[in-house]
Amino acid sequence: MTNKFWLRCGLVVCGVLLAGAAQADFPTVPKETYEALKLDRSADPKQLYEALLKRYLDPAQGAGKGMYGQYWEPVSFSRYFDPNTFYKPPKSVKEIATREQCVKCHTDESPGWVAAWKRSTHANLDKIRKLTPKDDTYYKKAKLEDIETTLRSLGKLGKGEQLKEVGCIDCHYDINTKKKADHRQDIRLATADTCGTCHLQEFAERESERDTITWPKDQWPKGRPSHALDYRANVEVDVYAGMSQREIADGCTGCHVNQNKCDTCHARHDFSVAESRKSEVCAQCHSGADHNNWEAYSLSKHGLKYQRDKEKFNFNIQIKDAIAKGGQSAPTCQSCHLEYQGKITHNVVRKVRWANYPFVPGIRENISSDWADKRLDAWVKTCTQCHSETYARAWMEFMDKGTFSGLDKYDEAHDIVHKQFEAGLLTGQKTNRPAPPAPVKDGFEQFFQIYWSKGNNPAAIELRLFEMAEDHLVQLHVSLAHQYWGYTYTVGWAAMNRAYVEIQDEDTKLKEKLALQERVAKLEAHRTSSLFDFDSTDGKITLGSVGGGMLLTGTLALAGWSRRKKNNGK
Amino acid sequence: MTNKFWLRCGLVVCGVLLAGAAQADFPTVPKETYEALKLDRSADPKQLYEALLKRYLDPAQGAGKGMYGQYWEPVSFSRYFDPNTFYKPPKSVKEIATREQCVKCHTDESPGWVAAWKRSTHANLDKIRKLTPKDDTYYKKAKLEDIETTLRSLGKLGKGEQLKEVGCIDCHYDINTKKKADHRQDIRLATADTCGTCHLQEFAERESERDTITWPKDQWPKGRPSHALDYRANVEVDVYAGMSQREIADGCTGCHVNQNKCDTCHARHDFSVAESRKSEVCAQCHSGADHNNWEAYSLSKHGLKYQRDKEKFNFNIQIKDAIAKGGQSAPTCQSCHLEYQGKITHNVVRKVRWANYPFVPGIRENISSDWADKRLDAWVKTCTQCHSETYARAWMEFMDKGTFSGLDKYDEAHDIVHKQFEAGLLTGQKTNRPAPPAPVKDGFEQFFQIYWSKGNNPAAIELRLFEMAEDHLVQLHVSLAHQYWGYTYTVGWAAMNRAYVEIQDEDTKLKEKLALQERVAKLEAHRTSSLFDFDSTDGKITLGSVGGGMLLTGTLALAGWSRRKKNNGK
Amino acid sequence: MTNKFWLRCGLVVCGVLLAGAAQADFPTVPKETYEALKLDRSADPKQLYEALLKRYLDPAQGAGKGMYGQYWEPVSFSRYFDPNTFYKPPKSVKEIATREQCVKCHTDESPGWVAAWKRSTHANLDKIRKLTPKDDTYYKKAKLEDIETTLRSLGKLGKGEQLKEVGCIDCHYDINTKKKADHRQDIRLATADTCGTCHLQEFAERESERDTITWPKDQWPKGRPSHALDYRANVEVDVYAGMSQREIADGCTGCHVNQNKCDTCHARHDFSVAESRKSEVCAQCHSGADHNNWEAYSLSKHGLKYQRDKEKFNFNIQIKDAIAKGGQSAPTCQSCHLEYQGKITHNVVRKVRWANYPFVPGIRENISSDWADKRLDAWVKTCTQCHSETYARAWMEFMDKGTFSGLDKYDEAHDIVHKQFEAGLLTGQKTNRPAPPAPVKDGFEQFFQIYWSKGNNPAAIELRLFEMAEDHLVQLHVSLAHQYWGYTYTVGWAAMNRAYVEIQDEDTKLKEKLALQERVAKLEAHRTSSLFDFDSTDGKITLGSVGGGMLLTGTLALAGWSRRKKNNGK
Fold it and tell me: Rounded to whole angstroms, how far apart are CA atoms B445 and C570?
């Protein structure tokens, strides 16, 4: 890892021309990031890039296999989840190709790549240069110039040289290279730092998530939850590392790759910004059992109006202008979540309050705090693009209180099951609860139990309780957050109510069973203490439940009583 | 409420000019409504509007908090659910603004409002006036003239005066006002009666749902289920009023607001009719656990062809012409459900037969009746726009019989659980069944149990049974109604089958448990009646299950038997 | 059936002109089909059509009610599921109409039909003839000529005669007829053989599914699973035939009609090829509990990019050119599943490996076989349109291994429940397990149990186990196959994990119950063997559990012991 870092920095240092005194003047990159990187805002692009890159590739700061790395082995597909750690150039492909040869050969080999690329801005930089102020994408002209400034600073572009195109070889070998690429040695996959070489502002913005999201009482680790550290968040889950079914564990990795790559949102190889502004981009990951953001949005008034009107939206326009100039009549995921204090950036977590998971310890209490109020105010500012402040505040209060109701309901159920656990009464708790695989430690109602199970670990009621929090409470909250009314009936509350009812039912049945077992035990105690005790299977008189030994074929003296009591013990 | 009514009527009466003898000539408003309002068809717009408004605002006829009003308090967001009851102008905004100032200031304050409005017909009335017969929306020209006639009748528009625009101030203060609006006093939200001032025909059509939907044996209250009384239907649910988690209760309110407002279907502030003709409008509410209309439609052939072809539909054309002239190759929700005998109106409930909930008492029997046959014939007429009559009737029969099968399955399960209830055998029924909050009354398998639960109220099996009817039977029926084939496997029948199996399983287990308890009781009875009885906990001889008292340290005479039997009682 | 075949062939034979020596030169029809039909590739269209038709209509080869036909009766809607078997012309319609009269009358009677048809290619054949090479649909010109060649071969079109149109009468009576159609005698619905009269290539392609899908160890019947025999696959399910709820059984038929008809994918009456190239076509059937293909695709990167970009796709272009020329930036269902070795055909099952159902016996083992490897290679070729071979192979391995993990988990659960079954311990297994309706045979964990249930057949745990395989394992596999990441958490694994946990929990509880029952039995055995035995209900001394008879009002001699032991038996 460290080697790789120096290799890349080395490439940079050896660049043909060293950049001038250009500043990396990116007002959208928050001060927290400059501070964390120990840079002034006057830093030049090269300084900013190198500082970001060093941190980005540092295993101590989240790169690579993570703190449980020794427990898990990659699968062959892992090279696509984390190319910096696992990808190796293909040994079976012998071609050493020029820029033009890449395109020519892959037109046959993988036509989809080339067709998409040919439509892309990457293949048509000159079109960008010819844009005029009346074009929707005129803003891209300045962006291209900024990118060229960055590349000059990095020594990747000569003074006065213009970038001709961004082709296969630029991302998969080296930007603006004049050399040939040897498949067996040179081919790399484009990771976030690759994209960041040109798109430094965006790279810095997304990396800033590490710096801006900090929690008053460490409810979450620093910099999380965020896209910038989502791979770390994945591989440092103990059960991820511990479970033997690697392809199941990697189901989570499928989404937790934004730390490593940009192509979740910017699908290759057209990399259309217009496309990445559509809500369906976010749906790829923000959907499902414990992050039903897409389901909630897409059935809300917001999402359904988006569906009805989107064909008339002008997605070429920058998000900040979409409402006023782009005909955007309903919010996209992006227009609310990428916005912070009126600016659109790649830091998506600046307004986070609940962080999707209301049950995380300390989150609930934190909602009434200055920390949270500041973020609430930022949300209200977002909403007032289309709503009154009164409306926005009334809704935020509604959402919070609805979530509190869910938490209370969960607490009631938790109390019941936890008492069973403390009394050792969960099904099989004392007889059939295998330990989870290392590095996972067993415990009551743990995350690992939705991934891994064996014997009676977890108990059914325990898993139900966990899902009540992880799935149903989350769905209640997320649906409220997106004003999807299904939270009472369809998801969320109805499911929590059902879980509570079933948990209560099981608890009452358990108590009845225990009562019955006690009655039987009492009867057994009585039996063992009664005068004569016969085994029914062979008609012989035995010594009750005391072992199976001592056969008595005759009579038994009353004197035997006290001794048998002791043996019976219990 | 009453005050508000007179205030509004007062405004009307004081209008600058009284209307001439214009008739409110709305053939799409059913006779039932004229009868209910005690009006002739020769009534002028003012008479019609005032009669509608009086009823609309009358608490005795469904306005406001409802018959359980004393049990529940509004939340701050309630002002948006029922503005007529809860909305107060914002005290913190001091501006007193002209028509133009509203727009100017809100261009900055809430740009989404203004941008949408500027695209709307409301902001471009002159464009309507210039339409020619070859324009798709030419019909709007006549509609605008009708609206102006109405406004003249109401004294809101001078003779010969044209409506210039419908801006912020017209809906949020008073239509066509020349005055300034004082935010702290004058601002109102637009409720259905506000929209109805201009859109009188549509207001009358939607209010007619109160009159046309009547049930032969009062299976539902008069005028319900309908959009016209959907708020009443919500707040007069006992558990809505009784539960303490107000934001959860209001999850239902989120949709049950069409009585109060028009903007569920006509989203503010573009109020595009074309948009409101798209199926995704209905999905906002008609989706979810117990009204899966959207899910069924959108995975049916109808809904999926809509998805494939809709970009070619001309939504500017009136629904009645959509198939023949608008390229509409698949039904929208609106084109089937707003149609009745060839006409499209805002009364959506005229063909109702099953009313979504087959388990409602009396609904099943009613399907074979003249009442239902008349509606079936109306449905067949709808279907023959694109199907043969034979096809339509075969399908209706198929749908009905499939629903009957579901009802039968439900009845079997009901019988099992109900017997348990009658025998007092539901889990915790005699030991841990707290009463629901007032005004809710406890009972077997009640609606409140999917909202509220405590202790063993409801029992798990009881809730499962209820959901079998409320969710799964409904999903079976609704899927059949929309020809979504998933009703056998994915939703509906499969879920009912599963519920039946689990209920049967629980029942058998319960019987086994009872049998075992009886055997233990018999043993206990035997023990108490046996010669010697020892307590196993301390090795001392006790008097069995008779209290814990009477310790016997020595022998016990046979003479003791009969007395102990009596004590044991049971 | 046989009669019908000869009738049709008869019509062909009597055609006005016999065709020349035209070959049915269809390279996309696989050799397996020519072999099965005992034809050379030099066969003319007439020979090919007649051979296909004969097989198509042959009950022994899958036409009609199937091998359980005597058990089930059709419903009135069955005529639309299987017109060749059940449709009769409408007796109530007396019109005898010309080609033009059909259109004229139905413009009023069923306007949707006519409006759609008027947009269709069928109504605009001359437009096809005027296409030039620069038109997207130019390929249709040659296709029309092929169709005319076929019709001439069949004697349906005169030498040099051009087909003027394909109107109502052509499909619903006879192609290119000059006669009038009598509704009461002549009207037919268009089945696949009707469409195949003109679209012979496509008919042959789809019928070829019968021939290409064969299984090394008969894991599935020959030619299945496929569209070509999907109706047979439906009606030859024993529980389909046996269950009394016909409309529920026919929920499956709703999709299993592709054997009989083409209009699932080619919706009537516009029959737009462009439309049928959209993924939403497949969603009609390939969605839901045990074939969640649509759900998986539509939330995958593939499906969501399709949603974002599809408005820019040129669906008029043939699928084979869609990526390179049609701007198709994301796969449709069709572009991957209709492709085989670079060609697009109506045989959709040539790359089948898992066949959707990993739990089918022998499927798992078969994945490592030459048979499967050949198909895997074909898949890899498909993927390399847009991915590297390394990527494709890594993913296929990932998918297979993930599915294996699911199978292992299922096996663990199966073992638990199967042991209960073998021991006769399923709930009610010995006391309340009614036999399923004929022709269904009872057994452990059977398919019929998700359709039909009665008493404790199936047991809850047994149904849960079955659904673990039929629904959750399938969802795991299908989600993996479509790279939908929800397979770990949202569907698939999480649900399997939950099922396993609940099954384990039930099993432990069962063992505890059995242990308690045994303890009680021991106590009872003890009681019956104890000196004195009193019945607690009336205070009289009885002979324990031995019958209810023998009242003992006095003392009982020790001599009685041995006899009672024998009576007690057990």
Answer: 42
Tell me the three state secondary structure of residue B66: coil
Q: Which residues contact A153 (CB under 8 A, 6 or more apart)?
A: A19, A20, A22, A24, A44, A45, A46, A49
For the CA atoms of C2, C4, C6, C12, the dihedral, rounded to the nearest 10 degrees, stands at -150
Bridging pattern class, strands B339-340 and B181-182: unpaired
Report the distance separating Cα A495 and Cα A473, nearest Å: 9
C-alpha distance from B357 to closest chain A C-alpha (Å): 15
Annotation marks residue B408 as catalytic: no
Q: Do C486 and A288 touch (CB under 8 A)?
A: yes
Task: Choose the catalytic residue: C357, C410, C484, C500.
Answer: C357
| Residue B482 annotated in active site | no
Q: Which residues contact A347 (CB under 8 A, 6 or more apart)?
A: A30, A205, A206, A208, A209, A212, A340
Whether the Cβ atoms of residue B206 and residue B226 lie closer than 8 Å to each other: no
Q: Which of B353, B340, B344, B333 is nearest to B283 (CA)?
A: B333
A68 is catalytic: no
Amino acid letter for position B29: V
Helix (H) or strand (E) holding A344: strand A343-344
| 8 Å CB contact between B428 and B442 | no
Q: How far is B485 from chain C (nearest CA, A)?
A: 5
Quote the CA–CA distance of A151 and A170 in Å, as a whole number.
12
Q: Least CB-CB distance to A284: which of C304, C324, C505?
A: C304
* Span C170-193, pLDDT tens digits: 999 999 999 999 999 999 999 999
Contact B308, C280 (CB under 8 A): yes
- How many CB atoms lie under 10 A from the CB of residue A531? 15
Torsional class of B323: left (φ above 0), alpha (ψ -120 to 50), beta (otherwise): alpha
Two structure tokens written together for B461: 């099996």
Decide if A308 and B541 are in contact by the 8 Å CB cutoff. Answer: no
Give the containing element (helix H, strand E) for C310. Answer: none
Which residues make beta-bridge pairs with C552? C541
- Whether C331 and C302 have beta carbons less than 8 Å apart is answered as yes
Beta carbons within 8 Å of C50's beta carbon, 6+ residues apart:
C9, C12
Contact C523, A527 (CB under 8 A): yes
Residue B132: exposure state from Cβ atoms within 10 A (0-12, 13-18, ≥19): exposed
- The reply to whether residue A112 touches residue C386, judged by beta carbons under 8 angstroms, is yes
- Is the Cβ pair B488, C249 closer than 8 Å? yes
- Residue whose token pair is 């935010």: B183
Chain C partners within 8 Å of B390 (Cβ): 90
Q: What is the pLDDT along chain B (570 residues), one digit of tens a residue?
A: 344 554 444 444 443 344 445 776 789 999 999 999 999 999 999 999 999 999 999 999 999 999 999 999 999 999 999 999 999 999 999 999 999 999 999 999 999 999 999 999 999 999 999 999 999 999 999 999 999 999 999 999 999 999 999 999 999 999 999 999 999 999 999 999 999 999 999 999 999 999 999 999 999 999 999 999 999 999 999 999 999 999 999 999 999 999 999 999 999 999 999 999 999 999 999 999 999 999 999 999 999 999 999 999 999 999 999 999 999 999 999 999 999 999 999 999 999 999 999 999 999 999 999 999 999 999 999 999 999 999 999 999 999 999 999 999 999 999 999 999 999 999 999 999 999 999 999 999 999 999 999 999 999 999 999 999 999 999 999 999 999 999 999 999 999 999 999 999 999 999 999 999 999 999 999 877 654 444 444 444 333 333 333 333 333 333 333 333 444 433
B291 counts as catalytic: yes
Pairing mode, strands C96-97 and B343-344: unpaired
Q: For residue B354, which of B364, B340, B346 has the smallest C-alpha distance?
A: B364
pLDDT for A24: 67
